From TrEMBL:
Residues 97-126 have a biased composition (Basic and acidic residues). Belongs to the SIL1 family. It comes from Chelydra serpentina. This is Nucleotide exchange factor SIL1. Residues 95-131 are annotated as: Disordered. It is found in: Endoplasmic reticulum lumen. GO terms for cellular component: endoplasmic reticulum lumen. One of its GO terms (molecular function) is adenyl-nucleotide exchange factor activity.
Amino acid sequence: MSHCIGLLSIASKLNLLVLLLSAVCFCSCLSDRIPEFALTKTEESDLKEENGKESVAEDDLDPEDLEVFYPTYQWQTVRPGQAVPAGLHVRLNLQTGEREARLPDNKNEKSDMKDQKKRKRLDEMHINSNSYTSQELKEALAKMKGKEKTENTMEQKANLEDVRQRFRPIEELKKEFEELNMKIETDFEVMVKLINKFNSSTSTLDEKVAALYDLEYYVHQVDNAKDFLSLGGLQLVINGLNSTEPMLKEHAAFVLGAALSSNPKVQVEAIEGGALQKLLVILATEQPLAVKKKALFALSSMLRHFPYAQLQFLKLGGLQVLRNLFKEKGMETLYIRVVTLLYDLIVEKMLLEDSENKEDQMEEKVQQYKQVNLVPAVVEQGWCVIISNLLALPEHDTREKVLKTVRILMASCRDGYQGDYALSTTLSMLRTEYEELAAEEQREGDKDGYFKELLSSINTIIQELRAGYL
Ligand SMILES: *[C@@H]1O[C@H](CO)[C@@H](O)[C@H](O)[C@H]1NC(C)=O
Ligand SMILES: *[C@@H]1O[C@H](CO)[C@@H](O)[C@H](O)[C@H]1NC(C)=O
């Protein structure tokens, strides 16, 4: 305890102000989160957090002063100044205002400690903002006020006004902080509320959509997604996919996609909960574009790095469902997402097959992937030409993805491509266009530019098509 108080007393006024400001900002962000906040890429905030954490560690905490917290499977109070090892579950006890931590429930979850670094946004912020209790803050503020008086007697009257001005907002912030501090809840508690809101028959459509919207923000985190699962939220969201309300379908798919991302446990539960069929139904039937977009997003999260789901996808005719999107009007913005998904799935399998590191576990995965005959199905269903036709689209980054996909499919699609007059015309036109752009790029001093790379892709494809004739 003495550590932390000592710590706070030496903390400069500025640091405390920053702490208070960030706490207030954090809380107000939580309470009236604007749409952009949830959709912003997380990398940036992660980075900031990490920097913030580092600087706390470097500036304020002498590592040698830190006591180590020895975790058990029971919740234990974390004393101020104690270092909490990574990978623990941390919560704020709302009755005592104290921070508590314990080992994750399931011993299997230990492997998740690696994920700790990737843990996002709120959890880290909870830890940071809860590491000072309001009592400590009050004591620190009392000391600072004491200083203010000393300064007064030291006849630094010129400074006084300045100091006062700086302290007034702190006093106000303190009050605000204490009010807000009471409202800080763990992610788990927030999710329980949101799930209940979504599940309640008395909630309006808007309230349900808002609950899903907020849930999407939480389930990105691997541990939160697991809690979401154990709370029964995942199945509710899967059931939401066949709601009659397009808005609910859309947001249910959004939450599902977020929870599935790089989360094998959720992937398994979701496929068992019937999510794959429901997503395919959405993609196969007439739905607003926004709904299909999110369903495709969830489908992609479901299939990536999950060969079992890929196999079911092929068995259920998922590839035909995606191909039919190309016949539907108004779905153009989905084309490149579909191609990107196919490209990623093909590459994923290739990388694993080429991988040197064939340990037992890998071997099992290789066996699973062996059953996923995606490329033959792609060729059989006429995707070669569907994909190469997309080279006619005007955007460079679309063409880049299509070129990559054409190259990867070359061995299997060559026969069709060689007889494709439209393709060779398109390739010549693109070559001319990118020769010019690459030259311009080089004149501007960019030797290994983007357009040069595209040009080289095009040239490789043209060569490979010619080589086939030999
Ligand atoms: C949703 O509501 C139903 C009916 O009120 C209830 O039986 C079910 O347990 C709830 N599900 C969850 C996950 O809260
Ligand atoms: C969606 O389908 C499941 C069964 O597949 C059903 O239990 C659920 O009630 C349906 N939900 C809606 C909103 O229709």
